[in-house]
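Fold sample X.
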Amino acid sequence: MTPVSSNAPHGQSPLRTVQVLGGGNAGSSAHVRSLAEGLVARGVRVTVCAPIEADRAYGFTGVGAEHVHVPRSSDPVSVAALRTACANADLVHAHGLHASFRAVLALSGRTTPLVVTWHNRAHAEGPRAHLLRLLERRVVKTAAVVLGTSSDLVDRARRTGARDARLAAVALPARRRAAGLLDPGPDALDDPDPRRPKIQAELGATGRPLLIAVGSLDRQRGYDVLLDAARSWRDLDPVPLVVVAGEGPLRPVLQRRIEDEELPVRLIGHREDVSELLAAADLALLTSSWESRSVLAQEALHARVPLVATRVGGIPDLVGDAAELVPYGDPAALARTVVRLLADPERCATLRERGARQAATWPTEDETVAQVLSVYDELTQPRPLV
């Protein structure tokens, strides 16, 4: 079999791949951009099928990939557009459940290999949960390889009927560590970020601890538990300020609770400067009911910010001993852990050091691309002469 991990040998056409992305959360969209950039650099032709908004936000064409607008919908028109885009592909790689299902429909009747990456677990209740299970079964039984970003996703794929399920190497893209705000280096504790006081002042956290949470304002994120815990922090002196960056359907409900209960919490909406927020934070908080490779967890450890996270999904494997883990849905445990850390600078210093060491064990972008290329190599045959 002809390797595809570098520019195509003389006389052979380059490998043609299609990357299929649905609505795309921040993690999967950034991953596809990073993957596209690495593949193009290695001589692979890449077409990214995604909504036009995703290309505007993540710049797939800016790294040398072709972009084809395919709406997130699974209606016949969208599936037909995807089928056309995949017509000459040697391999199709879909990211996320809905994108994967559309790829299955688009490839119906074709022998084009399908690789699927599960970045997260779909959440639903009632009849919709049953529908999602059916979609998962259809996808994993069609895919040649399913890559899961955490071991529990790999196990789920195997239980659902995957022929071949593997743990994916997924790096935190370098652009998420831009401007030198993350990976501050070993001298960070002795040389605080000069932007820290300015950011704290802008957030209203001067002279008080600043706790940062990041993520969409939906039920999965566990922000109701975070607000329950914040109620107990009102008795501290000074009172910590919790800042939540993100937007979502629960914003009116959360805002009403904050105002009615006079909680020390601010909702600041969607932000592009998460790295700067972390540079000013005393602690990072992750209260979700489930996560795979949480971007916030990775950014916090890279930035040497002590992390308190729920012991769910792929979080324990991701952070190792470099974070304080608490049960999901337990506001008392969350509150106690935060209070203890705020009063224990030595423990915080230990977590910072461990965080930097743990982050160094995570795969790089080059390693991520290399793994994907090895999978592509297994599934593609030598291509005909030009």
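Fold sample Y, listed below.
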Amino acid sequence: MMEVLKNSPKPVSAAIHGSGLGGGLEVALVWHYRVATKDALLGLPEVKLALLPAAGGTQRLPRTVGPELAVKMIVGGDPISAADALKSGLLDEVVADTASGGEAFARKILAEKRPLRRLRDDDSKLAAAKADRSIFTKRSL
């Protein structure tokens, strides 16, 4: 399913309501765009169960929010708010309702003819960590 979504020639957008945690967030990271309601929480809490995210979250999250926030989310397991997710780039928009807001967002990206955003092709948020790998050894996480 994730391969089909990732390689879709048409834009796909995830609409998240409530908790987008663990595997749910990992699936949403495959989609080209993500929206969520203002009360949504997003994160990878598996570490609190002594597990690591195993559906690509450790690879896609740093490309989405940058390595520093990704490491905090993966190692700490605490979710972030929709507002913080929007600021970090994890979300493209915060909507009032997933059904109508998700549909309106999808119509907007189609009308704007936005190009498909595939995380595998975007390493722009990784440049700083590639230059200074100390982010992975800091104890202030």
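Sample Y note: The first helix runs from residue 2 to 6.
Also: DSSP finds seven helices and six strands in the chain.
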